[in-house]
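Help! Submission page says 'invalid entity' but I think these are all valid:
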Amino acid sequence: MSILVNEKTKILVQGITGAFGARHAQLSLDYGTQVVAGVTPGKGGQFFEHKQHKVPIFNSVAEAAAATGATVSVIFVPPPFAADAILECTDAGLDLAVAITEGIPVRDMVRVKRAMQGKKTRLIGPNCPGVVTPGTGPQSTGGCRIGIAPGYIHKKGHVGVVSRSGTLTYEAVWQLTSKGIGQSTCVGIGGDPVNGTSHLDVIKAFNDDPETHGIIMIGEIGGTAEVEAAKWIKANVKKPVAGFIAGATAPAGRRMGHAGAIVGGSEDTAAAKIAAFQEAGIEVAVTPSDMADALIRAAKARGVTLS
Amino acid sequence: MNIHEYQAKALFEKYGMAVPKGAAAKSSAEFDAALASLPEGPTMVKSQIHAGGRGKGTFTNGFKGGVKFCKTKAEAKDLAGKMLGNTLVTVQTGPAGRKVQTVYFTVASEIKKEYYLAILLDRATSRPVIVASTEGGVEIEKVAHDTPEKIFKVFIDPAYGLADYQVRELIFKLGLNPAEQKNAGKLVRSLYNMFMDTDAAMVEINPLITTPTDEVLALDAKVSFDDNALYRHPEIVALRDLNEEDSKEVEASKFGLSYIALDGNIACLVNGAGLAMSTMDIIKHFGGSPANFLDVGGGASKDQVVAAFKIILSDPNVKGIFVNIFGGIMDCNIIATGIVDAVKEVGLKLPLVVRLEGNNVAAGKETLKNSGLTIVSGDTMADAAQKVVKLVA
């Protein structure tokens, strides 16, 4: 099993005719993902063609979902239009919207998040690499790849990975795969200050998933979401958890690439988060090269088999 | 993006908030005209730089205080001449300080009591929050730590906006008299409107004051904006002062690079913000000191890599370079070729350690090896970090 998505999940791509969206729609199709529809307003009726695939394009998300049974959307539309694209998914009653777009104004996200309250649709991102549930084929193909992560670095298995950062997720996944340890699902929740799904939301899902035996949680400076997750882990999670926090050397008050990666007060420093991890019994990776090994140590201590 | 106090106060006035009357001058020739717009009497002179702690700062020429009270306009003109064009060092500027390129004259207001007022995003609730305190004119972090009961917060539901009862509640807590309450209520509303309209990231008034005549005035103003929203605010972008930004950071942004200068000697070139931060961390972990944060983004094209090398090398402290690329979608060999071309183009003399991982990494490493350049290859981040730390030691 897995969380959020599996190999049968039907996805639609908002912004499939843009260069970025098209490139990643192709890579997802190559990975074996069920990309069943594209949405580009004004291009309804056309097709997105790639190798043997012929994906129909629709003018709206509601139309695309009704015609194809898609339950998940991946959003590649430019920042000024991205908030609207997320709301469109919500109104169409999709299960999941994954917003890859980087640079959405905070005010737009504040409103979108409020509008999504009490609605069925879950949002992942924005400014995130997406979600991958690896498949059983060669180089993990046959799985569900939503977003921009490289598919081949994955391997089907039992470790859940959740992270705010894209390349740091790949780093962790690659370390695991190189050691023969597979993943159940890998979730990039994004580096913005206002996002749809938190570390804690994903941790809860991993905890409930019987196929997930261990968890790697990667965070960074800014906000207190990792601390909140650590407290919940301490009280509720029996599975081994390894953690890493990026930004120990970041100066206060400077935004480190991600809009959300900024130290404001003493609560959101790397040191405070690492202390919360240790307090919660999370095995802290000493360096980013140590993430998979940290999980192996945590699993050994709890007598859990990861692979 | 940050703006100066005098610009922030002009915005405040536009939104109907009361500020002490003031005028800015960018050269000594403008002093008389600026002062002529103010009434005779006690006047403040305020250095305009994007950093706090100005009042307690010292100029590199020995003159003390970047914000001064003067009894007369003539005295204000004299002191402005000592500030303008000189470099002010405060707790927030670092030892290099900032050159004062604008001074701001304001009427010196009579203060009955000082308060604190700010609006920013509360990340935990994903809502705007108004923060107010009866303790103004001091560091708010210290108030929050020592006397948290003196900090009041109002969370605003973005679906309904700021409600009247919330404004009343906040103002009652500040213990104002009826006339002050009326003025403060208007100011809080206006500040919220401005915060939302302009896509501000933070607006802070410290101190907000009451006067003997029950006026409520913003004595200082610190405003920053959400960079992601600047595309829809050309009037805000026009307020940007490039003199206040690191020239290397400005140059980097032209190439879609995210660069932040630090004070170490090992330069980093990395793809992805999280990986870039942790590259700095791992250098520190092995006893080195990072010279910068640099995220070249997911693509890392040759042009970007060349631009990145040039920016890195313009920092005279740099003694070695650590390139850390996880080539996810991109072919590592293309990245390696870009690195080799870039190194040749900029004529790099410093030690260079490259750690490549990902798609087609074997070919990429081969390209680096056959380049004829002395590039040290690292297998993992830890391995590469240790190597570069050793090379610059």
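Support: the input was valid. A stray whitespace character was the problem, and the output above is from the cleaned input. Chain B touches chain A through 54 residues (CB under 8 Å).
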